[in-house]
Design a protein that fits this description.
By secondary structure, this protein is of the alpha+beta class. It contains 18 helices and 21 strands. A hairpin with a 6-residue loop joins strand 2 and strand 3. GO terms for molecular function: ATP binding; protein serine/threonine kinase activity.
Length: about 700
C-alpha cells in the first residue's frame, strides 16, 4: 500500500512576503513574533503526523493472540517405579531442560534428549504442532512438564495436549509407532448438514492419512469446504519425526480408524504414542499454515502404453456391464411390477441406513439355507456364510433361446458386485411386530459404527422371516479359542491355547472400548443385553468385534428377556435375571464374566460345572483372596508371557464388574481408563450371585 502525504510546515510562507519582511539584498527577515508562530505551527504539525502514522499502522497490523492449545487430551504414567528415585529425577529434569533449550533457542518444534549413561537413564521426546509459534510451543511444553512430573517415582509418563505432546521413559522408544491404549476424543456437538460434514471430514482425514507420511517432517494441515459459502472442515495430521515412513502410515491408519467413531460430530481427535489426527468445524490453525497435499496423493506415473491398455480394458468391461444391465432391465420390465427397485447393487435398494437386499438373492446364495452354508446358531437365529463374488460370465441356453439368441447372458449367481464374503443371520421374529417398527429398529442398529462392533450391511424381510447381512469374521468367535463349547458341534476347542497374553488383553480392551461407546459416547445410551464370548468375533488380526448388537430389540414383545441367552445364565446380571431390571450395568456384569473366561480359558456355563465344584466366578474369588492370581490363568499360556501384576489387575477389574449390586460396578468408561492409563481399581466385595439366582440344572 502506497501512502502519499503533502504537508505544509510553514503555511504562512506560501504567500508572497511583504516588503518589510525582506531586508537588504532580498534576504528574509523574521521577527520574534514570526519565529514564535513558526515554532507553534511545527509542533502541532509533527503531533498530527505522529497520530496519523499510529492510526495507519494499527489499521494494517492484525493483533497477535497467543494460544498454546493446552487442552489436555491424555495423560498416563508407567506402572513401574525407578530404582533410584533421586538419580532418575535429576536425569529427567536434565532432559526436560535440554528439550526446552532446543525449542526456545533453536526454534524447533520437535526435539529429543536423553541421559543414557546413568544407571537410571531417561529418554524424552517433545513435539509441538507446526502451526504454533515458538513462544506458544514453549508454553505448551511447560504445561506438559508440570503434568508429567506428577507421575513422581514412575519411570515413564506421557502427556498429550492439543498443541503438543511430551513423553519420557527409562528405555528408548523413539521408533515406536503405536501401542495399545490409543484413544479418540470426540465432541458431543453436531451442527447442520451432518451427512455432508461427516462425508467431507472423512474424505479430508483419509487424504491426510495418506499424504502425511510422504511429507518431509510428517506434518500436514488442510481444510475443505463442506458446501459453497457454508461450513468448512479443518484437519491436521502429524507423526513423530523419529519413526519410519511405514511407522507413520501404521500409526495414522490406527488413528483414522479410531476417529471414525467421532463422525459426524463437530470435532474429533485421535491420539497415539507417535501420531496425532484432528478435525474440527472451527479453525484451530492460521490459514497461512495450510499445505497443498494434492501432490502427495498421486501415485507413481503410468506409462503411455499402460494408460492405453487400462483405457481399452475399462472401455471393454464397461460395455459388457452396460449390455448386462440393459438385458436385466429388459427382463424386469417384462416381469411383474412387484420386483424391487434397482439400486447401485443388484438386488438391493437403499434405506436410510442398511441396504435392503432381495430375499430371493440371499436365499439362492445360501443354497436355500442349507446345512453346508450354516456357520452356527443361537438364541436369536441361525447364521449362514455366503460368498458375494463379482460377476460370473456363464452361457445360459435357456435364457438365450427365450430372449436374445445373439447375446451371452451374464448372471449374478446369488452375488453382489463387491466380492465380499458375508454372514447372513436368519430370524423368525417379526410376525408379531409391525414392519415399520422393525425397519426403524434396523435403521438405528445400522447407523451405529465402531471399530470393535460388527457392521450391519443390510437386511431383507419376507413375511415373518427377517434376514440380516453382516460383515464376515473368518476367525470366528472368542469362545472357540478359549474352551470346548457344548453349544457348537462344528468344533471342540480346536484353537484353544492359540491366543497369547497380549492378544487376550487387546481383546478385553477393544471390547471395553466398544461397550463404553455404546453406553456413553453415542447420541443416546445403547445397551447390548447379550455380551458373551460367543458374541465376540475376531478379525484377521485378532481384534474383537461385538456381534448380535440390537437383536433383543427385534424380538417379539411377548418373549422373555431370558429366552435368547442360549441357555447360559452365567453371563446374566442378577437384577436382570430375577427382576428384569435393565441398565448399562447389565452389560458391565457380562463383560466381567467374559474377562474371567479370557484369563482362565474356562467357560462360565453353569451346566458344565461338575456337582460339588465351584463355578467360574467363585473360583476367581478364591484364587484372588488366596493371592494365587497366576493359578487362575489359562494353563495353555506361557508362564513367562504374563506378569502377576497384570493378571491381578485384570482379575480385579473382572471381579469389580461382577458385583451383585449394580451401583458397585464401574462404568465402562472407567474400565477403559483403568486399562489404558493404569488407574488403580478398588477391591470389590465378593458377589453373592449364586445365592441370588436360582439355577435350573434340569437340562
Amino acid at each position: 500500500m502506497r501512502l502519499a502525504l503533502t504537508i505544509s510546515f510553514f503555511p504562512f510562507l506560501n504567500s508572497t512576503p511583504s516588503h518589510h519582511q525582506l531586508g537588504n539584498h532580498g534576504k528574509l527577515i523574521l521577527k520574534s513574533a514570526d519565529c514564535k508562530k513558526i515554532s507553534t505551527t511545527m509542533g502541532t504539525t509533527f503531533w498530527n503526523l505522529g497520530v496519523l502514522i499510529i492510526v495507519i499502522v494499527a489499521s494494517i497490523l492484525k493483533p497477535v493472540i497467543s494460544d498454546p492449545q493446552t487442552n489436555l487430551l491424555n495423560r498416563g504414567c508407567s506402572q513401574y517405579n525407578a530404582t533410584n528415585f533421586r538419580d532418575f529425577h535429576n536425569n529427567r529434569n536434565a532432559t526436560f531442560n535440554d528439550l526446552r533449550n532446543q525449542l526456545s533457542l533453536q526454534n524447533k518444534h520437535f526435539a529429543t534428549a536423553q541421559q543414557s549413561r546413568s544407571p537410571d537413564p531417561v529418554y524424552a521426546m517433545v513435539q509441538c504442532r507446526n502451526y504454533l509459534s515458538t513462544a506458544d510451543c514453549v508454553s505448551c511444553f511447560d504445561a506438559a512438564v508440570a503434568k508429567a512430573v506428577k507421575c513422581k517415582d514412575a519411570n515413564g509418563g506421557r502427556v498429550v495436549y492439543d498443541g503438543c505432546f511430551l513423553r519420557y521413559e527409562s528405555n528408548t522408544f523413539y521408533d515406536q509407532s503405536t501401542l495399545p491404549g490409543n484413544v479418540e476424543i470426540c465432541s458431543t456437538q453436531t451442527g447442520s448438514r451432518e451427512n455432508e460434514f461427516g462425508a467431507q471430514a472423512q474424505a479430508l482425514l483419509k487424504d491426510l492419512q495418506l499424504a502425511t507420511p510422504r511429507i518431509t517432517g510428517y506434518f500436514a494441515a488442510s481444510k475443505r469446504e463442506v458446501s459453497p459459502g457454508g461450513r468448512t472442515v479443518y484437519g491436521v495430521a502429524q507423526c513423530a519425526e523419529t519413526i519410519s515412513q511405514s511407522g507413520c502410515e501404521d500409526c495414522l491408519t490406527v488413528a483414522f480408524n479410531n476417529i471414525q467413531g467421532c463422525l459426524p460430530n463437530a470435532d474429533g481427535r485421535a491420539v497415539d504414542v507417535a501420531c496425532f489426527l484432528r478435525y474440527s468445524e472451527t479453525s484451530f490453525f492460521p490459514d497461512n499454515q495450510t499445505i497443498d497435499i494434492t501432490p502427495f496423493l498421486r501415485g507413481r506415473g503410468l506409462s503411455k502404453k499402460k494408460v492405453i491398455i487400462i483405457g481399452v480394458a475399462a472401455a471393454g468391461g464397461g460395455l459388457l456391464i452396460i449390455i448386462a444391465l440393459a438385458f436385466i432391465l429388459w427382463c424386469r420390465l417384462h416381469r411383474k411390477p412387484e420386483a424391487p427397485q434397482k439400486g447401485n447393487i443388484f438386488g438391493a435398494t437403499e434405506l436410510q441406513g442398511p441396504v435392503a437386499y432381495d430375499f430371493k438373492v440371499l436365499k439362492t446364495a445360501t443354497r436355500d439355507f442349507s446345512k453346508e452354508c450354516k456357520l452356527g446358531g443361537g438364541g436369536f437365529g441361525e447364521v449362514f456364510k455366503i460368498a458375494f463374488t463379482t460377476m460370473v460370465a456363464s452361457l445360459d441356453l435357456f435364457h438365450i433361446s427365450k430372449y436374445f439368441p445373439i447375446f451371452v447372458f451374464i448372471t449374478l449367481q446369488g452375488t453382489l458386485n463387491n466380492g465380499n464374503i458375508v454372514a447372513v443371520k436368519k430370524l423368525k421374529a417379526t410376525a408379531s411386530r409391525p414392519k415399520e417398527e422393525v425397519e426403524s429398529e434396523i435403521r438405528v442398529i445400522g447407523n451405529v459404527h465402531h471399530r470393535n462392533l460388527i457392521r450391519l450391511l443390510g437386511c431383507s424381510t419376507k413375511g415373518a422371516e427377517l434376514l440380516l447381512v453382516y460383515e464376515y469374521m473368518a476367525n470366528g468367535s472368542l469362545d472357540k479359542f478359549l474352551y470346548e463349547s457344548p453349544h457348537h458341534t462344528s468344533y471342540r476347542g480346536d484353537k484353544r491355547g492359540y491366543l497369547n497374553w497380549k492378544q487376550r488383553f487387546d481383546i478385553v480392551f477393544g471390547t471395553a472400548r466398544c461397550l463404553a461407546y455404546l453406553h456413553e459416547q453415542y447420541h443416546f445410551s445403547l445397551i447390548h443385553r447379550d455380551v458373551k464370548s460367543s458374541n465376540i468375533l475376531l478379525d484377521n488380526y485378532f481384534q474383537p468385534k461385538i456381534s448380535d448388537f440390537g437383536m433383543a430389540a427385534l424380538m417379539p414383545e411377548d418373549r422373555s428377556h431370558l429366552s435368547s441367552f442360549s441357555g447360559n445364565l452365567g453371563y446374566i446380571a442378577p437384577e436382570y435375571a430375577i427382576h428384569g431390571q435393565l441398565s448399562e450395568k447389565v452389560d458391565v456384569y457380562s463383560f466381567g464374566v467374559v474377562v474371567l473366561e479370557t484369563i482362565s480359558g474356562r467357560s462360565s456355563n453353569y451346566k458344565t460345572v461338575e456337582p460339588g465344584r465351584d463355578n467360574l466366578l467363585e473360583q476367581a474369588w478364591k484364587q484372588y483372596e488366596s493371592d494365587m492370581h497366576l493359578a487362575f490363568v489359562d494353563e495353555t499360556l506361557d508362564p513367562n508371557d504374563c506378569k502377576t501384576d497384570d493378571v491381578k489387575k485384570l482379575l480385579e477389574i473382572a471381579l469389580l464388574c461382577t458385583q451383585s449390586q449394580p451401583s458397585r460396578r464401574p462404568t465402562m468408561s472407567e474400565v477403559v481408563a483403568s486399562l489404558s492409563i493404569c488407574i488403580s481399581v478398588s477391591k470389590g466385595r465378593k458377589s453373592n450371585y449364586k445365592n441370588l439366582l436360582p439355577i435350573d440344572n434340569s437340562n
